[in-house]
Amino acid sequence: MASAGSFLDTKGHWAGKEIELAAKSGLIQGFPDGTFQPEKTVTQEQFLALVERVLPSYSGFEPDAFVKETYLAPSVGRWSEQTYRHLAAAGIMSTGKPTDGMTRLEAARILLAALGHQSEGEKYRGTTTRFFSDLSTANEQEVMTVYPAYKMGLLAGYPDGSFRPNSAISRAQAVVMLTRLDSKIEELFPGEVTASEKKGMTDAVSAFVHEVMEQKKIRRYADLQAYVKENKLNVSEPFLREHFSFMKYEVYDYVRFPRFNELMYYAKIGTNKYRLTVQYYAGELGGSVDKTFYLSSQDGKTFRLIGKDE
């Protein structure tokens, strides 16, 4: 393999700097002949492998039968099989074959999931604003994928005003996208959160969810409010409204909380305020989901579950 920064075919390339830095960091490798082949199409499995290298570590869990049959079957026996299985727990799954070229639309969807920001697409539901000449607002799913990825700087459009959602991306473009993803992770999840704080945050949320959903099997919102009050739990009313309002409408069978061993991002966003974002697979009905919890703590050890605006 070519050593970092010494590829024979990237000098003077428009993405040469990003490729060199990615090689030095160990994100990418070249070919035995000393080239990187920057204009070669990147495959879906190659792109997923790159994404996996940028993400924080997490243990994940065994995929269910639906995921295995629908998304993982094509990767069985391939070098990328474990990458597919690992990312599936975080709801990061491609829709084609491992050897298919990665399209710009598919890349946008995967990058948003990798960032735990798929829900940003909801901001553009029903919009009539047209960002690109070749992307109709009538195609809501594409709009809700491309617009947030574009606004967050993960992908850009072309000078002619198009986005070209079905165009395959090159190895060079993939490197640039992953570099942007890495930078965006640092931007969106700021603050030095210690390992003990991360554990405290995770334990506080997961313990409460497990207690009310699994142990007590509370299914009515009024019962949940009463239980929290009677037991003087360290949980605010705004937190309950943000995460358990579905109990008012008896749709709890369709709502699945994370297991808290999926992809998780931690941020300290104020003197005593923290944010935990979990990107996960929520079952066949729920699909790929990101959920954000807010917490407060005076000492970084005992956490109170609060609402976003508290």
Could you walk me through the main structural features you see in this protein, from its secondary elements to its overall organization?
The chain has helices spanning 16-25, 44-54, 65-72, 81-88, 104-114, 140-151, 171-188, 195-215, 221-230, 237-244, 283-286, and strands at residues 263-268, 273-281, 288-296, 304-306. It is of the alpha+beta class. It folds into two domains: 39-188, no CATH class; 195-306. It has a four-stranded antiparallel β-sheet. Helix 2 packs parallel to helix 7 (171-188) and helix 3 packs across helix 4 (81-88). The longest helix is centred in the middle third of the chain and has 21 residues, at 195-215. The protein starts with 15 loop residues before the first helix and ends with a strand. This is SLH domain-containing protein. InterPro entries: Cell_Envelope_Struct_Comp, SLH_dom.
Our count of domains comes out at 2
N-to-C order of helices and strands? HHHHHHHHHHEEHEE
First CA to last CA: what distance? 52 Å
Mean pLDDT comes to 94
Global structural class: alpha+beta
What is the number of helical segments per DSSP (H or I, 4+ residues)?
11
Counted beta strands: 4
Gyration radius (Cα, Å) is: 21 Å
Low-confidence stretches: none
Main beta-sheet annotation: 4 strands, antiparallel
- Helical proportion? 25-40%
Shape: globular
Instruction: Order the strands across the largest sheet as they lie in space.
Output: 1-2-3-4
Q: Strand content of the residues, in percent?
A: 5-15%
